[in-house]
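EI: anyone free to look at a 596-residue chain?
SC: sure, send it
EI:
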Amino acid sequence: MKRTFLAFCLGLATAFGAPEENARELRVGRAGHAFDHLGAISEQAEAAAASGATIIYASGLGAEGYSGLPSAPVLMNKKRRAADYIRNAHSVGIRLVIGYVCATSMVKLETFDKEWPPQFRADFRTPPSEWRQQGRDGKPLPSWYGGDYEAACMNHPEWRAYEKFIVREEIDSGHDGIFFDNPTVHPKGCYCPYCMERFLNFLKREKVAIPDPSLEGIRRLADERKGDFLRFRSTIARDFLADMRAFARSLNREALVTCNNSLNSPGVFYSQCRDYGYNIWEMSQTEDYVVVEDMSHQPRVLANGQVMEYGPTYRLIHAIAHGKPVVAVTLAEGDYRTPPNLTRLAMAEAAANNASYVSWPTWPAKERPAMVAALRPEADVLSQQELVLNDTRPRRDVALFLPFRRWLETNRCVVLDLATVLSRSNVQFEVLAEDRFDLGHLKSGKRLPVLLIESESVLTRAEKEMVKKYERAGGTVLIVDKTPNWLAIVQQKSQASFTVEAPPTVRAVVRDQPKRTIVHLLNLNIERLSSTEDKIHPAENVRVLCRVPFGRVRSVWAVTADEGGLEFSAKAAGKETLVEVTLPRLEVATMLVIEP
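SC: here you go
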């Protein structure tokens, strides 16, 4: 698309950072993520920075984008205001400001292009009404969001050109990257000519015979080859993000691009791929980091005693995220406002699982000082331990196989159920998806982990052969649907590595570095009383027994925003050491750092 409309807009220079400078800001502990707007409360960069956030997600020009753009003078003023806001955010300690762009939404289509000047309109061959996702009959599909929303197709070249214009405006106004919301495909799939052309190429790459390459013929194939069409639909957002990222990087080589990977609850881990094309395996290949937005599994204890946690889900996300940083919003009951200690717990839970938490520091003015004072110590603890929190690997007493390809067959993810059981039992485990399910990865540690597989039926022929080789190498393999007492076996085999004596609401996560072992202790026994109040039920005398991979231990120290000390002893065990630590009181979270 030409830049004719930019003559009507304020030209703002974009600063280019050093290579990988922005990527370093995503490191666990260093990064504190926050949305700066919620409802009528917006532009909360100062509150975010005061509470310890370093990366904010700003509304930017997002509303203007999905509404079709205001008049040129109004857009110019919006850009000026956004630029001023970003400069102020940077001045108070915010390192990255990520601008919002909606990947598919057009709101109030009847007025969407009303304010477009002739020069801008001339850049498009078709009106916005033709950019919508289409059904099997070629007619526009209604948006699943309802109301005034219409769903644009991410494969339509003119919609992509329009989106690139919005991205340019965001980057020109000073945003350090782009957050794409709603990169979704209609549950029925899009049958527009552009999707059908790409589906045709998808089938050709798969060596599928094409009896009729006409538009109607490809639509017929989409109906006949439902599995292939589902797999293709899961690549649409991936390819869209790749195009947008390349364009953003052409404007600012350090620009970061991510999107809302959804996952509104752990239970949709498979089904969201089938229903809306939200496939983290695919999208993470072309975004700089993975953001998910859970609406219910904020770590806490419910009034009925049920324990909520997100740790198992973090493990599964890492398994399919291609090594990209993981960032999560975890809410309670869909409420974006979270009381202070539960926010601290969510931050610590994310860090324990090599991830970062997204907060919403959009508090009413009267609540702001107290919330800032409550959250800042936890943010400071995490930021001060950046070296401890990064470049670690999970203690892997169990390797849990995730055949992610099963999203094509079922909505139920059995591996998530198994991960939840392991987490509740404080068994240390790592989840391995298909791309890392080989002898090299399984044998990469000092000990062979127990290999846990939901059922032999989920394995391919090659995977079955690999499992046999692992057993011949001395590894233990447990097939869950054939081993009713699998958990007891796992616990017996893993207890020499790590055990914890604590109430059932305590979670322990062990991560290792070459010369350091870190034990994260989390007290999930915190009740949510309201959006602003919670109640801690501390755990007393938490006893940890941890084997560390070095022959002598010189120090064990506790890192926490809680109060209290600890007692420890160490006993040599060959080339390793068995460390016993007693934490008198665990309120929210504590890291035990064991060093030679």
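EI: The two ends are 59 Å apart (CA to CA).
SC: 👍
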